[in-house]
Structure formats: structure tokens, C-alpha cells
Amino acid sequence: MVGTGAGPFSYAPAIALFPLAAFVISLVFGRQLPKKGAIPGIFATAASLLFSLWMFATVAGGETYHETLYEWSAGAVTTEVGAEEIAFSFGLLIDPLSALMLVIVSLVAFLVHVFSLGYMNDEGETGLPRYYASLGLFTFSMLAFVYADNLLMAFMFFELVGLCSYLLIGFWFRTKSAPSAAKKAFLVTRFGDYFFLIGVVAIASTFGTVAFAGEESFVVAAETAIEDGTTLFGFDAQTWVTITGLLVLGGVIGKSAQFPLHTWLPDAMEGPTTVSALIHAATMVAAGVYLVARMFGYYALSPTALSIIAFVGGFTALFAATMGVVKDDIKQVLAYSTISQYGYMMLGMGVGGYVAGVFHLMNHAFFKALLFLGSGAVIVLMHHEQDMWKMGGLKDKAPITYYTFLAGALALAGIVPFSGFWSKDEVLFDALIVGLEEPVILAAYAMGLLAVFFTGFYTFRMVFLTFHGEPRTETAEDPHGVGWSIKAPLVVLGLLAALVGFVNLAPIAKVAGMDITFLEYWLDGEYGYVEGLTYHHYHEMVAFEEGYIGSETTTMLLSAGLSLGLALAGAFAAHTLYNVPEPKRHTTKLGGAYTVLRNNYYQDEYQVWLAEGLTLPLARTADLFDRSVIDGAVDGVSGASLFGSSWVKRIQTGLVTNYAALIVAGFIALLLGLGLYGGWF
Amino acid sequence: MAAYQLPQWAALAPALLLALTGLVLFLIDSISPRSTDRTLLAGTAAVGALASLAVAVWFTAAGVGTPTVDGGEGVIEIFDGQFVVDQLALYFMIVVTIVTALIVVASYDYLAGHTYQAEYYSLVVLAATGMATVAAANSLVTIFIALELTSLPSYALVAILKDNRGSVEAGLKYFLIGALSSAIFVYGISLVYGATGVLQLDSIAEVIADGGADGFGGLLGLGILMLLGGIAFKTASVPFHFWAPEAYEGAPAPISAFLSSASKAAGFVIAFRVFNVAFPLGEIGNVIGFDWTVAFVVLAIVTMTVGNFAAATQENVKRMLAYSSIGHAGYALIGLAGLSADGGELVMGAALMHLLVYGFMNTGAFLFVALAEHWGVGRTFEDYNGLSSQAPVACGAMAVFLFSLAGIPPFGGFFSKYFLFTGALQAATANTAMLAVAAALVVNSALSLYYYSRLVKALWIEDPPATRDRLGQPTGLYAAIVVAAVMTIVILPGFGPVAEAATGAAEALVN
């Protein structure tokens, strides 16, 4: 049921082009515009949102869209599977997954733009045209990435997303830390993207196609190759799929801040908080996990790749959550929570829980955008103070901020019935049932489960320190007010964080036997679908066995109860320790562990050592080799040439008799040489 | 094609128009012998050259020389085949008239205040007539006569700055070497005649094919090598190149441009025609013991190397260009070195293209030197320092010429050189010595970038001396330079037709 160019889908390119237009307008006319570029940005993202909703409705009506718009290069190749030509193109793929993501991205981008009115304009920031232009480009890149129909186009916009995050993280480029954080984000993600690029090239040269969907896609080609037992580049097909899949995963790990490439993300807090909201909820970081979902069919072919995804995800979830426990800066806590939550999504994807992963991606987009914007509101309230120990008691002074933030916190901690609970529970349930058969996954599940406790703890530690107790500074006594442009997005997102979980109430559906798992139906093609990109299809492809403790329902209830219990335990621990009028720094009692955690497990240190202790000497050696051997050879050649030149020049004596003699001599030499060669003598 | 049939001799119209222009210039000169009406004289010469160019282009477009099976007019023979007008002839007439037009326009300013205006222009046009005739000549006799018609005015033109010692000395040297080379050439003709008994090129081939020259192999071979010597003189190929650096340096710069572009092209057209038509590969090998491509392989490598190596450390810009011109003759010789019994039209087509592109870029470069001489800034690289700050347009054009000469994309010179390279590699399947030629082409191109970019650096990067006066903007010189630069650039998008014409001309000759 792939639609043709007619109908609503012919307007699909506009979704990405609106923010691009806003980018151009803000850049060119930003200085002259009343709100320095905010207005075109808001209108453009609103238009994108409307069009996205229209696409969403159309997909719900049973139509999908897969169309090549522009082919920029095509040619003959020799590939491993025998395809003889390859084409690189720009094309759109609008299926349930991308339609859903388009709505999420454009909605969050729209709310961030509105929020920026209060956060940036009202606070008298300078350089706003640059800010709004970057936001526009960022939104454009992400939207185009979302509905890219092939891996190369996805890669290009993936890179643009990286560039835009660099621009925005370094927005306050006059400070010392922001440019450094921007560079770090750029370099670390670039390190991952390097593998991604190799992966793209490997896939293109293996299968002769980079399309995500359809009979011509690399997923189908890989499936055929595995069935036929083809040997690809000396490996059997499945191993090669694992290798290429893991190469692409390099980009995902960089962008989605998974261990060990997560180090850029906490530093990225140097950007404006609105940017953090956009990066964490809907664009940059989401791009990585979305890519896994987009080419899930490919990963589904390789149990090894899936296990690695799951294990990395589970490990990252726990690892980041523990670091979140000791942070004092409100944005730092959120940063580590982001890393941890994307770990859950990876865990979900890795155990074949495509729906669970996407579900958590969606919920997280809303509650994390909410929490960041909420913390932005807190920062405005606190006159740009971010240390939670200097806050306290904001609950009564800013009720809207408090209640919306609380909704987000409950969702993040995974407390029923807020959205985060449903999706996190589904991820953990999927991990558990696979884990009962696969020990590696069980370990990943255990780490994920343990992380729930820490999540509950650090989330509520943050809430209590910020909003409860007595105000600990004068600023907290008398906070700055916030306007409608800050409150309105918070309310919208607060409602979403509370309610959006109801689109997929899997546990209740199981227990009560009701058909209310709408998201699963959506992704399974109950409405519109593109052949080969449905949950059903993926589920058949994933080679994991599933086991249960007792019956399926028992297992599910057990899993849900465990995770909810741990979350509540974490929250309760935080309550006892911090929900008091004068909270103390209890985490310092952890002793050595506290130091390790404060220093983020020395991740930055070892990466700096890798750069300075290993790469730099290596680069110096290479430089020395270049200067001595290579340059020496080149200089030698040019020296010899110039010496030869001065010698050749000397033949021209200026005496015409010499010339005549040389001409005759040269001619005779030629004559003798050729005569000998021709056998005249 | 045409509504009415022109008489046969009209096919020589491009050459005849040039001759007529020369006569008109004489007429003007005899009516008013002391006339220095530069506009009239230069204008007449330019109109004549352009008219000749227009006719040559028209003939090409109308299909003269295109085989009748392809819908063309076929090759036109005149005077029982003493002259032929085919695609090759028209192609070279176009090259020659373009260069003539450019240098005539440029000379308008260069010759301001010069005594012998009418003589200068009529000599240029007569030399051009000789070159256009050479392109169509099809017998050793007509070739020799046309060649002398080209050479004699050239000697006078090199020495036309009578008060300039360099110019006079260069003219004399050029004449002496030219006389020696002509002697060798004409001796070669007599030997070939002795061996075959005929002078017309296609008849020579017939005699050789019929075995009429068997037993005279050595004699014929010696004759062929002597013809080669005469041609090497005209194309300034090693070892007959000794006249070139001094003649180019001493001559007025537009004449240097004329000699190094048009006169060289005339030499090449003889080489292409004589060797392909009169001494077909394969058959000639049986008679004289080797294929003449061997000689061209040697000449090409030696010429490229000597030209570029000698150019590398020159301090005088004009002399550097003179040596670079020798190097380019080596590149064009690849077109003959790469031929084989069953093909090679691609590599020869590439050589033809290179000569056309070279006609623009080399002429332009010498005209820039003419402009510098007009300004009186001096002759060395150092004297050219920082000219771009005072004359950005001309210096921009010069950078285009130099990069194109070095073979840097996206300029015309890159493509012709690229085709030469791929052509040489293709020819290497039949003749492995072509690999050495291709390697020499690459090495020498790399070396040439060194000295061309030295000049660009002087123009654009070095600081100008503080004492330089304001520079004028002579209209004619500027116009010629800008046209040449624009053509060097736009010839790239227009390369399709050029490549087609060149390959067509080469195909017609080789097969």
C-alpha cells in the first residue's frame, strides 16, 4: 500500500522545508524582525507540526509514501551480491514510524521555539538571529533525517544534525566552557560517525543499494544473502551483516551518547537550556536510537548485533544512573538521566522489543523536553542559578512549574500511571522474557532493573532539593516571575507526559484481555504500512527464544511489580533523605565511591589520556616521518630537477655556430640510433 | 548543402582571403608609404583574419571534408591533388586565423610609435597565408613552398625592432638555423623523390605499397628522417629547438606568440599529414626497417624533458615561456608517437585539441608579456611582483593561462592534456614505449606547475615595488588577452564540438 505522488504526500517535503525557510529568514532578516527571528521559527515549526499531523492522519487512513525525489548520482558498480548498478538519491519514506517521529520532532521543536521567547528573548540575550537560524536548521535536518528513505541521505542529515548541535552548544561562544563543550560534542560524535560512514560504504558496496524499504532495500538484499548462504568479503553473510550493522551502530552510540561515547553529553549542558531540551528530547540524541528503529530489519538479521545493542543499552542505563545520583547541577542530573534513558531504549531495541523501544523514545521525548524546559523555567526563576543546593522551596512560588515538573519526574522515575512507567516496563518485560533464555540479555536486564532504583532516587532527589524544603538562598526566597510563553509549553508537555502512556497499555491489555495496545497496532501496520517495516515482520526475523516464569501474564505482572517497586523504593529513599526542611549532602558519605562518581568513573580522564598520551605521540611520529622522509624525498626530487635544469640551460650558449653543430650532431645521433634499430648497417 | 556550387578553388578561400588581405595592406602602404594609421592597418589585418576564420568555420559546419557517406561534401582536391581541403586543413586554418586575429588586435597597442606599421601587418598576414596554405598542401613541393612562405616573413618579423640589438640578433640566428633546417628538409624531399619518383603524398604511399621503393629502404629512411628534421625545426622540437628561446625572447612579444602558437601548429599539420598520408604505418616498416613512431617517441620524451627542465630555473619570463613552448611541442608530439597501424585517432585527436587550446592559452600568456613590455615593468619574475594590485583583470587572465598551461582543471589545458594522457595509455597496449611517454608527460607536467606557479606567485602574492608608475590599460592588448582567457575557460563546456572536430580530422587522416 505504497501511495503515489498524489494527495497529501506531495506536500511532505514542505515539512522539512518550512524550518529551512525559517533558517534563511532568521539569518538574513533576523536583525530587522521584531522578535529577532522567533516569529518565522514559530510559524515554520507550527506549519511543520500541522503538516506532520496531516501525514499522521493520512497514514492512519491506510496510506504510506515511499518516493525518490531526486537522483543525484547513479552508475555501474561491482558488488558482492551481484547488483550491477547503484543510485544515490534523495527520497522520502513516510511509514507509521517516521510519521510518528515527525509529529514528535515538530511538536517538541514548536514548543521549544515558543519557550525560547520567554527564555531567550525576555532575558535579553544577544545573537538571537543566530540562535533562531540554528534552531531552524536543526529542526530541518532532523525532520529530513526522520523521513529519509535511504541510509546515505540519513547519514548526510545525521551529520547536519551534528553540525547544528555544535553551533547551538557553542552558542555562548564568548565563554570559555561553551566552545570547548561544542568541540567535544562534535569530535566525540564524529568519532562514532566515522564508523557510520564506513558502514554506509560497506553496505553500499556489498548490496549495491542503500534504500531502507522496498524490494530493492539492503535489508531485503541481506536477508536473501543469508538465506542463500552467500559469502560476502570473505565472511559468511550473517557475520558480515553483524560487522556492517555494528559499524553503523558506531554513529548511533556517538549520537545517542551510549557508553563509551557518552562523555560529550553532560558537557553539552553549556548550551542554552532550550537547546538541551531539543537535543535530548527530539533531535540529536534521539537520532541515534531512531536510526536503529529505522533499520531494525537489518539488525534483526543478526542476533549478535542485537545482543551487543542490548548489553550496551543495559550497561549504559545503570552506569549513567549511578552518576546522576551525585550531581548538584540540575541540568547535569537531567543529562545523565538522558544517557540512562537512551540506554533503556537501546536495551528495548536490542531484545527485539521494537515497539517498546519506540514507545520509550516517544514518551521520553515528551517528559525529557518537559523536564528540560521545566529546569529552564527554574533557571529563569533563580536568575540563572543551576546549583540545586542554592534552591529549595520553589513549590509554592511557582506552582505551574512545580506540578508540570513533577509530572515529568514521575514519568522519568517510572511511577504508574505516568507515561514513563508503561514504556520502561515494556522494555524491561521484553528484556526479561528474552533474558530467561539468553544469559547475556539477562545480565543486561538486571542492570536495567537496578537502574530503575537509581532513577527513582536521583529524580526525586532533584525534585525535593529544587522545590521542597526551605529556600536556601535569597534568590530562592524571591524568584523571578515567568511568562505565558514558558508556562504554556510546560502545561502541554505536562499533560502529554502524564497521559501519552495510555496509547499502549500492554499490561492492562494482557490482564483484562482488551485491545488497547494502539501503538503496537500502529507500528504493526494495522493502519497503513510499508511492506517489510512492520513489528510483526521484525518479530518473526529476530531469532531470540522467549521464556516465561509461569504464564506470560505472571511474568509480566512480576516484571511490572519489580520495576515499580524499585522505582518507588528509590523515590522513597530520596524522600527520607532530602524531603526535609534543611537537607544535607548525604551522598558525600559514600566515601571513595562518591569521588569516583563525581569524576564520572574517570571516563573523561581516560579519553583525554587516549588523545594526549596515545594519539598525540603517534601524530608527532607521523609528522616527523612526513617532514623527514616524505618531505625529504620531495625536496630531493625538486633539488635534482632544479640542478638538472641549470645544467640543461647551459646547452644554450648563445653562439649560433654551436647551435648548428648541436643540431647536426643531434640529427646524426638520431639517424645512427634509428639506423641501428632498423638494421641499416 | 550550398544553394549554388562554388568553384573548386574556392575551397582554399581561407588562405586566399589572407593573401588578399596582405595585398590590400601593400596597396595601402604604396598609396601612403609613411602612413602610421594604426587603426586602418590593424583593422584591415584583423578583418582579413576574422573573415578567413569565419569562412573556415563555415566550411567546417557545412561539411567540407566530412566523408560524403556521412552527409558531408567530401574532401576537395585542387590542382590535381597538390592541395586538399579536408577536416584537418580546415581545423588548422581555424587555429592559425584565431591566433592571427588575436595578435593583430594586440599589436595595435604594442606597435604604437613604431615606424614600419604596414610592413609589420602585411608580413604577419603573409606568414599566416603560408600557414593556412601549409595546412592544405598535399605534395612535398607545395609543402616546401608554403613552409618557406611561412618562414621568410617570420625572420623579418623577429628582427623588425631594428633599433633593438636583441631583436636583430635573434632574427639573424633564427634565419641561420632556419636556412640549415630548410636545407635538411629539402634534401629530405629529394631523397624521398629519389626513392619513390613522386612528390604527391598519396602517390608516395601508393608507390611504397606497390613495392616501388623496395631496395631503397635506407635512402627512403634517411629522407624521412630529414623531413622529420625540417618539421622539428618548425615545431621547435629538440634538437632543432635552439633558435626558439632566443627568437622568442628577442622578437616583439606578439610575434613570439604568433611563432610559438600558429607557426608551431603549421609545423604539426605537416607532420600529421606527411607521416600519415605518405608513409602509412605498417607498410613503411617493411621498407625502412622500423616504424617512424619510434622516432616520435624519442623526440616527444626528449623535447618535453628538455623544454620543461630548462624552463624551471629561468629568471626571464619570456624565456621561461619560450622553453615551456618547447615542452608543449613535446606534448603534441605524443599525438604522432601514439599512432599505430590500426588506429590511434584518439591520441592524435587529443594532440589536435591540445594545439587549439594551446593557441589560446599560450598566445594569451605571450600577450601578457607584451602588455608588460608595453608598461615597461621589466623582464624578470621579480619585475612582475605584485602586478595584480595594479592590473587585476590582466593578472587574473594570466593566472588562467598559466594554470591552463600547467594542466589544472577546470581550464581547457587540463582536458587536452588529460586526453593526451589517456590516449597515450591506450596506445600503450600496442606499443609499450608509450608508457614511458605517459610517465614523462606526468613528470614534466608536475615540474611545469612549479615554474608556472612561480609566476602566479610573483603576480598575486609578492608585494609590488614602491616605485612603480601607474599602469595604462591599452584597449587592444586587453581585449585580446581577455578574449583568450575567456576562450581558455569556455572551451571546457564547449569541448564536445572541439573534441568531435579534432577526432574527426584525426580519423579522416589515420584511416
Automatic annotation (TrEMBL), chain A:
<feature type="transmembrane region" description="Helical">
    <location>
        <begin position="442"/>
        <end position="467"/>
    </location>
</feature>
<feature type="transmembrane region" description="Helical">
    <location>
        <begin position="275"/>
        <end position="293"/>
    </location>
</feature>
<feature type="transmembrane region" description="Helical">
    <location>
        <begin position="488"/>
        <end position="509"/>
    </location>
</feature>
<dbReference type="InterPro" id="IPR003945">
    <property type="entry name" value="NU5C-like"/>
</dbReference>
<feature type="transmembrane region" description="Helical">
    <location>
        <begin position="659"/>
        <end position="680"/>
    </location>
</feature>
<dbReference type="GO" id="GO:0015990">
    <property type="term" value="P:electron transport coupled proton transport"/>
</dbReference>
<feature type="domain" description="NADH:quinone oxidoreductase/Mrp antiporter transmembrane">
    <location>
        <begin position="148"/>
        <end position="435"/>
    </location>
</feature>
<feature type="transmembrane region" description="Helical">
    <location>
        <begin position="37"/>
        <end position="57"/>
    </location>
</feature>
<dbReference type="InterPro" id="IPR001750">
    <property type="entry name" value="ND/Mrp_TM"/>
</dbReference>
<feature type="transmembrane region" description="Helical">
    <location>
        <begin position="365"/>
        <end position="382"/>
    </location>
</feature>
<feature type="transmembrane region" description="Helical">
    <location>
        <begin position="305"/>
        <end position="326"/>
    </location>
</feature>
<dbReference type="GO" id="GO:0003954">
    <property type="term" value="F:NADH dehydrogenase activity"/>
</dbReference>
<protein>
    <submittedName>
        <fullName>Proton-translocating NADH-quinone oxidoreductase subunit L</fullName>
    </submittedName>
</protein>
<feature type="transmembrane region" description="Helical">
    <location>
        <begin position="333"/>
        <end position="359"/>
    </location>
</feature>
<dbReference type="Pfam" id="PF00361">
    <property type="entry name" value="Proton_antipo_M"/>
</dbReference>
<dbReference type="GO" id="GO:0042773">
    <property type="term" value="P:ATP synthesis coupled electron transport"/>
</dbReference>
<feature type="transmembrane region" description="Helical">
    <location>
        <begin position="233"/>
        <end position="254"/>
    </location>
</feature>
<dbReference type="GO" id="GO:0016020">
    <property type="term" value="C:membrane"/>
</dbReference>
<feature type="transmembrane region" description="Helical">
    <location>
        <begin position="556"/>
        <end position="580"/>
    </location>
</feature>
<keyword id="KW-0812">Transmembrane</keyword>
<feature type="transmembrane region" description="Helical">
    <location>
        <begin position="131"/>
        <end position="148"/>
    </location>
</feature>
<keyword id="KW-0472">Membrane</keyword>
Automatic annotation (TrEMBL), chain B:
<keyword id="KW-1133">Transmembrane helix</keyword>
<feature type="transmembrane region" description="Helical">
    <location>
        <begin position="254"/>
        <end position="275"/>
    </location>
</feature>
<keyword id="KW-0472">Membrane</keyword>
<dbReference type="GO" id="GO:0008137">
    <property type="term" value="F:NADH dehydrogenase (ubiquinone) activity"/>
</dbReference>
<feature type="domain" description="NADH:quinone oxidoreductase/Mrp antiporter transmembrane">
    <location>
        <begin position="137"/>
        <end position="439"/>
    </location>
</feature>
<dbReference type="InterPro" id="IPR010096">
    <property type="entry name" value="NADH-Q_OxRdtase_suN/2"/>
</dbReference>
<feature type="transmembrane region" description="Helical">
    <location>
        <begin position="432"/>
        <end position="452"/>
    </location>
</feature>
<feature type="transmembrane region" description="Helical">
    <location>
        <begin position="88"/>
        <end position="108"/>
    </location>
</feature>
<feature type="transmembrane region" description="Helical">
    <location>
        <begin position="143"/>
        <end position="162"/>
    </location>
</feature>
<feature type="transmembrane region" description="Helical">
    <location>
        <begin position="6"/>
        <end position="28"/>
    </location>
</feature>
<dbReference type="GO" id="GO:0016020">
    <property type="term" value="C:membrane"/>
</dbReference>
<feature type="transmembrane region" description="Helical">
    <location>
        <begin position="393"/>
        <end position="412"/>
    </location>
</feature>
<keyword id="KW-0812">Transmembrane</keyword>
<feature type="transmembrane region" description="Helical">
    <location>
        <begin position="215"/>
        <end position="233"/>
    </location>
</feature>
<feature type="transmembrane region" description="Helical">
    <location>
        <begin position="347"/>
        <end position="372"/>
    </location>
</feature>
<dbReference type="Pfam" id="PF00361">
    <property type="entry name" value="Proton_antipo_M"/>
</dbReference>
<feature type="transmembrane region" description="Helical">
    <location>
        <begin position="321"/>
        <end position="341"/>
    </location>
</feature>
<feature type="transmembrane region" description="Helical">
    <location>
        <begin position="477"/>
        <end position="495"/>
    </location>
</feature>
<feature type="transmembrane region" description="Helical">
    <location>
        <begin position="120"/>
        <end position="137"/>
    </location>
</feature>
<dbReference type="GO" id="GO:0042773">
    <property type="term" value="P:ATP synthesis coupled electron transport"/>
</dbReference>
<protein>
    <submittedName>
        <fullName>Proton-translocating NADH-quinone oxidoreductase, chain N</fullName>
    </submittedName>
</protein>
<feature type="transmembrane region" description="Helical">
    <location>
        <begin position="287"/>
        <end position="309"/>
    </location>
</feature>
